[in-house]
Design a protein that fits this description.
There is one protein chain. By secondary structure, the protein is mostly beta strands. Among the domains are: about 200 residues, no CATH class; about 60 residues, no CATH class; about 55 residues, Orthogonal Bundle (Type 1 dockerin domain), CATH 1.10.1330. Helices cover about 10% and strands about 30% of the residues. The strands form eleven sheets. Strands 16, 17, 18, 27, 28, 29 and 30 form a seven-stranded mixed β-sheet that branches. Strands 2, 3, 4, 5 and 6 form a five-stranded antiparallel β-sheet that branches. Strands 7, 8, 9, 10 and 11 form a five-stranded antiparallel β-sheet that branches. Strand 36 and strand 37 form a beta hairpin. The longest helix has 9 residues. The chain is globular, with a radius of gyration of 26 Å. The two termini are about 35 Å apart. The N terminus is likely disordered.
Length: about 625
């Protein structure tokens, strides 16, 4: 692999001298990689690390090579993409076989003016609040120019070829979101509920500030989907879900929890998990998935779900089929407003309707889900509490791993974690309570970013295996942070720890350097003020990322562990974190001349040969 540090080589001096406005953690350095961007949303490395792909809200995908943004974007969809409020180009991914097939995938909100005029819009009518829909589209990169452009005519609209088959967007936010490939080659997608954020939205008129209230008349939502935020609870809807599809056909997988073989492209066939409000981004825990799609185990998902006005949350989908409760639950508890509604799920007919005066023909969503419990749950039929609602209709709320305060209304930080009392009843506990099962601290935020797992070996040992998650803050300049969480082998949260505690940053997308030296993030700013930043390990504390030290030759790595020698444990010849018989035997076996120094890990003093001084270094550092 060619190290992504080559992305920085052209601007090494600048990177070493510059620093993001955020305060980096001890042993790390903040470095600015690219500036002059407008509302960057996310970033992803090419498999070989030579290129960085950056996409922005207005519909462009750029290639960064040698620290320079290439002048021509890979794709420019500005006319087709609607950017009103938080709509826009939200998701981008490379195919696992990208270096062979050149496939790239995008998720974006379609501009209704562009769509309804067949691609001949009135420029003055673009980017309005008109109700619309989201798409998932694939293009093929052109090998003739080394994948720097896409092949004309290679476009395939996988989801949302028409307005009635896409992701319904009836308000300014909660649109289509993120694309992630699992180890089994299946594609996972996240989508918001497409509903209003300003009122209890059960399908009635929405605030005209942010909706044209035409989704119903235009056929964007029809029939049973005219239920606002309750689309998150309707299995047969794309809204408020994690979807899992075959990237070759865009159909759901036969081992998805609600797959219908008669309708493999129906929303229910694609659904993996439901009950989410705006799952902006998510990550798969490394090592938890199968490589065979027939196994139905894409891996454990850690989902950042943006809350309403009280709670942000981090949800865990370990098996598929989980219902995270929105809009009846927010954070760990009942949501405001929605539990009092009687909105019906028209996929759940009541068999008692018309019997003994029962006038309830379909069950209300609130009757179909109960709070998580260790006791035996019940779902009584509202027409006869002695009879249960059919099990095929019912759910138990899957509580989030943690929830923290939305600071729009609650400026005081607070983090809650789920527990049960002695009767098995769900309770919430402050993370700092003596009985909390989680070691952590209080957070506040406004726009959860699901993040990434660190599965490399350059960061300090206590950070390895952590989930790095973020909050983008809103408006720009407020509350943004990057923190980390640690989970046990059962995927239960055990620790919340600070990483970049906050400041003038708005991270909307995170990416891991393939060599493991740094976490990169898109710093969301408008009008050319956006940037790509990185938090790089700096074990020798010289203000420069360790990969840049090694690239420039200011540090050497004799034992091949990828870190400057001055950071290694003295005497640790093989770089395994201990000084023991293996290191002693390596020194003895290498005795004598051992040039050149950077290729001779046993030459601990850098003298050009291995001798008594090196032996003494091993003995002095002995830890076995």
């Amino acid at each position: 692999m060619i190290s992504p540090r080559l992305l920085l080589a052209a601007s090494l001096a600048t990177c070493a001298a510059s620093a993001a406005a955020s305060a980096q953690p001890a042993g790390f350095v903040s470095e600015t990689i690219v500036t002059g961007l407008s509302e960057p949303v996310g970033l992803v490395f090419a498999p070989n690390g030579e290129r960085l792909f950056v996409w922005d809200k207005i519909g462009r995908v750029f290639i960064v090579e040698n620290g320079v943004v290439q002048p021509e974007p890979l794709l420019d969809l500005q006319e087709e993409v609607n950017t009103y409020w938080t709509r826009g180009l939200t998701g981008f991914a490379l195919d696992p076989e990208y270096e062979t097939n050149g496939y790239v995938y995008l998720m974006f909100t379609v501009d209704w003016e562009y769509y309804s005029t067949g691609g001949a819009p009135d420029p003055g009518q673009l980017d309005t609040n008109h109700d619309t829909f989201g798409r998932l589209v694939r293009w093929t990169s052109d090998p003739a120019d080394d994948f720097r452009s896409v092949i004309p005519g290679s476009r395939w609209d996988m989801i949302g070829a028409t307005h009635d088959t896409g992701f319904a967007v009836t308000f300014a936010s909660h649109t289509q979101n993120t694309i992630v490939f699992a180890d089994d080659g299946t594609m996972l997608l996240s989508a918001g509920d497409g509903a209003s954020m300003l009122e209890v939205d059960t399908g009635g008129p929405r605030n005209p500030c942010c909706s044209s209230n035409t989704a119903e008349a235009d056929g964007i939502v029809t029939g049973k989907e005219k239920i606002g935020a309750f689309r998150s609870q309707l299995v047969d809807s794309h809204g408020g879900k994690i979807l899992r599809i075959d990237p070759v056909t865009a159909e759901g997988l036969p081992n998805n929890p609600y797959f219908d073989p008669a309708q493999p492209s129906a929303p229910r066939s694609r659904v993996w998990a439901l009950g989410l409000r705006n799952p902006y981004s998510f990550a798969i825990r490394p090592g938890t998935g199968d490589v065979d799609p027939a196994a139905g185990v894409p891996g454990v998902l850690m989902i950042g779900d943006v809350g309403w006005d009280q709670w942000e949350r981090l949800c865990v989908s370990a098996e598929g089929g989980e219902n995270f409760g929105w809009p009846l639950f927010e954070g760990l508890i009942d949501a405001g407003g929605y539990p009092a509604t009687t909105t019906a799920n028209r996929d759940t007919p009541n068999r008692l309707y018309g019997v003994g005066g029962c006038g309830i023909d379909f069950f209300a969503f609130r009757d179909l889900i109960v709070q998580e419990t260790l006791a035996l749950p019940t779902w009584p039929n509202p027409c006869d509490p002695a009879q249960e609602i059919p099990a095929d209709y019912t759910f138990m709320h899957q509580r989030a791993a943690m929830a923290w305060r939305n600071d729009r209304l609650f400026p005081t930080p607070l983090t809650l974690v789920p527990v049960f009392d002695e009767d098995g009843v769900a309770q919430s506990l402050s993370v700092t309570h003596p009985d909390s099962p989680v070691d952590g601290f209080h957070l506040k935020g406004r726009a959860t970013v699901g993040g990434l797992f660190y599965d490399q070996d350059k960061f300090p040992a206590e950070l390895r295996g952590s989930l790095f998650f973020a909050d983008a803050g809103n408006p720009p300049g407020s509350t943004g942070w990057i923190n980390r969480a640690r989970f046990d082998d059962e995927h239960r949260l055990v620790e919340i720890a600070s990483f970049v505690p906050g400041g003038d940053l708005n991270p909307t997308g995170l990416a891991l350097d393939p060599d493991g030296y740094a976490i990169y993030y898109a710093n969301h700013r408008a009008a050319g003020a956006g940037s790509i930043e990185r938090i790089a390990v700096d074990c020798n504390d010289n203000g420069v990322g360790d990969d840049l030290d090694l690239e420039a030759g200011t540090s050497v790595d004799r034992n091949g562990n990828g870190l400057p020698d001055e950071c290694d444990l003295p005497g640790d010849v093989n770089g395994d974190g201990s000084v023991d018989f293996v290191d002693l035997l390596t020194v003895l076996a290498s005795w004598g001349d051992c040039p050149p120094p950077d290729a001779c890990p046993a030459d601990l003093d850098g003298s050009g040969d291995v001798g008594f001084t090196d032996l003494l270094i091993v003995l002095a550092g002995w830890t076995a």
